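Quick log. Single chain, no ligands specified.
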Amino acid sequence: MKIAEISSKRPIAIFMLLMAVVFLGFISFQHLKLDLLPQIEYPYAVVITTYMGAGTEEVEELVTKPLEGYISSTPGVRRFTSMSMDSVSFILVEFDWNVKTSEAVGRLSRYVDLATRDLPEGANPVVVEFDPSLLPVYAFSTEENCEDVVSKIKRLPEVASVEVMGKPEKIVEIVLDQEKIKRFDVDPSLIETILSGNLVYPFGYVSDSEGNIYPVSVDGRFENIEDLKNTIVGFRGVKYQSLLQGKVPNILVPVRLRNIAEVNITNESVQGEVRVNGKKASLIAIYKRSGANTVKTVREIKRILRDSKINYIEAMNQAYYTERAIDNLLKNLLYGFIAAFVVVLIFLKDFTSTIVTSFSIPLSLTITFVLLYAFGLNLDTLTLGGLIMALGMLVDNSIVVFENIYRHRSLGDPIPDSARKGAGEVWLAILASTLTTVSVFLPIVFFTGFVVRLFKYFAIAFVFALSSSLFVSTVVVPAGTRWIKPRRGKLTEALQKHYRKALEWCLKRKKLVLVISFSLVAISVIYLLSKPLGFLPSFQTNLMVIDVKLPSQSSYEKTAEAVKQIEDYLNEHRDEYKISSFYAEVGITNVYSQIMGRGQNEARIMVNLGGSRREFAKNREKLKNAISQLNIPEAKIEVLEQSQQIYEILGYPVTIEVRGDDLSLIQEKAKEIFERLRELKEVKKIQIRNSFEKEVLHVRIDRNKALMNGVVAGQVFLDLQTYLLGKKIGTLRTEEGTLPIVLKKAKSLSPEELPKISLTGLKGDVPLGAVSRISRRTLPSIVEHSDGERVVYVDLVSIEGSIGEVAKKVEKLLNEIDLSGVKVEITGQKSFMDEAFSELQYVVYIAIALVYMILAAQFESFVLPFVIFFTIPFAVVGVAFAVFVNGYSLNVPVLVGLLTLSGTVVNNAIVMLTRIEQIRQEKGLLEATLEGAQNRLRPILMTTFTTIVALLPTALSHAEGSEIESPISWVVIFGMLISMLFTLFVIPVIYTAIRRKVRV
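-> predicted structure:
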């Protein structure tokens, strides 16, 4: 091989090339973004529409349904779900995964714009592309003035927005006293008319005789709060209509605003509050831009907080888990390299030789970092997982090249010749083995499912690393062998001698060996097929969520009292459970909590636990049991684990959608399903989503009575708005800034007072009860749709066992229930699991076909690839053993491990059969088989054990970031080990048997 010969002749040039690669790799590594998961496009968008004052039913009929009609006809929409609640319509749209999200969102926006003409006035939909960055990336609380800090954080390029929660806005509130209005005999309509003149308005231009133009504006704004209080808002005994008609008494008695109303600067009316470590506080939540790096964003935020020297409490940190996960995976990478180095040293028994071959690992990783940075990829748990999986294999090609060059040096060949011959003889073998290994991941690019998209980045990192190792083995290793002196260890010779005897025994007993081998394969396949299907392992974080729910009519103040009891317990036991901080969102604290359907009767407490992963897992369980046992009247308490980004998309393990047109019927069927599913022992927690109802006062206007009393329906709405919500009438400049002025006709109202409120009519004031019928009604707080149909979700929030096993029992149970009149579908993680298994199944089929093509091309034979292919079913024996020992279900990591093995285990057979075929040109079949297998014993043992020990740190790890990589590692470890044994003893048996019968 010419390049190997040049490399051995010019070691200094190769060394300089390495220095350049290392330099570029170091710079690339420093600039790689750190994140938990790859930055993939989530094909989701949300359509949010506010229609203030409308109830759930009105929002559903007038807003949600018209929008759904247009969304359903939008090209590229896969499915959509909606929630209709008081004043808000929320529609989640999922596009086809193979479309570009930005283009799909653009099309959706155009269709939504068309829908606005069918919506009521005041309902303005907003289309937003969904991204996990819609959730805060960091949150903190402080009692100090932090306006400058917030301004600096807002200017960070990674930050999209900053929201201050729990800090009510200041307003100028005008509360009319209805008794005083009657006593002073002031017309209420005149009060509103006069106060509504608080504005400045441009009225065009005037010009003088010299041609100068002067803009004209009329300023009717109040100068200050005293000016507002002293404003004349009417005259005793004078009606507004009289003024309009010019019927004014001779003596006017003015009435000022302060005579009939309370005017104060106060906090805006709120429906919730934020509490940090048990105290009422404001919470500053920071949202990152789409595509921004989580870890870098949080580091910059914390730098600003540190430089500002303010005292603050960290309430949320999405980078915490990410940093720990990345750090642990990098440690596993380092430990794996050290372990692989030790294995190579044990076999070679020469430190210099070990340095030459093992150096291919860091060098290949360095080149991989350059490639990752060049292609704009992140350093996340999946790309690092791909690197860890490839770690032990990075030395394989170098070992094979080194071994063959070493053999030629032992035979007395000069350095350039031994490098040329040694690398040249195995070049096709290592090329084929590299191609077979990386080709198994090539089909992933043709599939667009969510899970396959995630593992695409695992595959890319794996392919980059293996490809880099091929370059290193053919360019760098030949240069390094220049300083190696031939030496053969007694251990290796003894191993080869014993191995040859064992192989001879197997070749003499072919039938027995094959029967035992294929029996083990059959047993393993049957065992794996009997295992239940699983999905993805859960991510255990340091966050715990406590959900509190009171009866639907409860105010947030009452909810806060229940929350305080939990907070008191947390404060009393902070040291026991290693609680670093906690915060509570009580009631409706921001738009997100309203969109998620949270009411004033609900609260969520986020608890940050310290310590190692094992410690906070243990403390989480203890705290969960303690909180669940707290006796708080009327409060329903649920303790959950905070999920990571991936589970925000996937949903609950199993969800049953009950759909239909009749809401009462689907609710009835959902309750029946709920009761039956509770009987399953595998179901630990089950819920009917958003099932709570609320009691409302329904005001039905009698239009005929209203007109008879001189009241029009539109005036009723305006009066009720002023009574219940308040009416904004401009702004006022104050010492606390420019504040909105809100006019209210009453401070608060009781249900008994509602019929008595006065409406403005042409014949005078009319009580609401005279023109309407007021009744109490019980309505659902939220009405949900799935693809335009009403739906009720039954969620299996927590299960014991695999998703596939539980889903089968759910399906069996559903078949026993009378579901006439409704449609039922199982979704949630189950649907993603089915999609993932379907796509991975095709990936495996295509991968095997590609591997066969590569082998057929290398050996110029249609038959020899089948001999090599027998290593794959033999690897299944190892997979079954890994599943059995660790108690895994047949889940996605197991399948990814099997996919990795299908391209890896063939390499030992390739190297062995390539050597056997070379020797067979000079010797007989049996002798060529024995000698070829014996020659390749040491490289096979070395490559297998370096891969195994390099994966052991990750396989044994229980730290953050190992949830997915650990099961993959165990599958690959056992698969490689068992397949190696079959390769050494069974593949030669199959090869000789086929060689004698078939011309290949």
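The mean pLDDT is 83.
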